[in-house]
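Last lecture ended with a question: if I hand you only a sequence, what can you say about the shape of the protein? Today we answer it with a concrete record. The protein is Cyclic-di-AMP-binding protein CbpB. Below, first the input exactly as provided, then the predicted structure, then a couple of comments.
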Amino acid sequence: MIGEKIKSLLIDKDNQLVKSADEVAVVGTKNRLDHALLILTTDKYSLVPVLDEKSRMQGLISMPSIMQAIMDIEDVHFEKLGEINVEDIMDKDYPFVYEDFELENVLHMLVNHAFITVIDEERTFKGIITRSEILKGTNRIAHEFERLYDVTEKATTDSVK
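The predicted structure:
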């Protein structure tokens, strides 16, 4: 369990942990790969959420998945970018939490993922929690904890060693 003092430093009051859906670059399931490639390269992302027409989370699309879709053993077929829909190649196995998430679960998930999608019960996309925001909070803890709190080492006994 994460203590309240650590949690308060990890998640700054002025800086919400969840980046809201309207601030996140996304693509639609019906978009073609050329559009997804444009979003990924323009915004310099390696991975973006894929939403359906009702803003429900459907998967993730990445640069490597796009390249795999247009390559064969001998060549890259760039003309396929305008022919293939995002939904045909998106990764449907994506990390997510609901809006009432436990911070501890998020921390465990972010070890293996750059971001976690936040959805509601109908899978409506609400935003993302990024590893970068957690690292900012970790940096805050490293610099502020001992300035704000008196820290003393607990006495150890031979049985605890």
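Comments.
1. Residues 21 and 58 are 14 Å apart (CA to CA).
2. The chain is about 30% helix and 20% strand.
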